[in-house]
Amino acid sequence: MNHHLRRSVEGWPAETNVDVISKERPRLKDEQRSPALPVCLLVALVSIWLAAACAGAQQATPSGAQAQPGAPSGGGIIDVFDRGGLYMWPLLACAVAGLAVIAERLYTLQRARINTRKLMSAIVTELRERGVEGAKEICLNTRGPIAAILHAGLSKVDHGPAAVEKAIENSGAVELAFLSRGLPILASVISIGPLLGFLGTVSGMINAFQHIAAADHASARIVARGISEALITTMAGLTIAVPAQIAYNYFLARIDGFVVEMEETSVELLDTLAEMRPRR
Question: pTM for this structure?
Fold first, then answer.
């Protein structure tokens, strides 16, 4: 963002107090950073618990019904989870954390989206008609990172172009960090999930071969059962990592879009201020 901003302020007379550090734009009451991640975490836990409860209810034998001899055991979520072994618990934690982050980021990024062209048109109109205070008021009443960086820049107009540029850069860094919040957790889930799955598979294979060694007659059924149960954790790890990777790439694309819009609007703001300045 620095290259575009610096190119836009060339030839704009500088003033004093250029090293003033900008503060983040005050946010509206409905835009305060609520504990969305803990709420999404609770929702994810409840969703998984309800899914497991429904699967358990489907596995239950109806009253008065008798299980047929030799019938295969239930293949629902709870049964698969139990057969996966100890490593299914950290995999479950990864699934809950990933689901919570995805839900929270979807909500946050959707709320941060605004009509940039409409906002800039309103700000330019206010700058020409009512001045800086009118434009700042529009930014204060608009949610999202773009309005935040524009408000930061407008707040330093009296300190010269370098201070405006610095304020926009500082505010842009703050807003970019806010947009990226939670993504390191999602990246960890993507990396750790398959590794836990492979670790569970190795542990399961060791147990399977121990059972084969302890058996008097090693049959193909014993070998197949041990291997299938050992591979459950690998399947679980990949099942967690693939959707998390898709969501992660989607969030990065959305954030890149916000960065481009922030650069374009900040350059347009600086150009507008440069055009208006000689008239003062």
Answer: 0.76
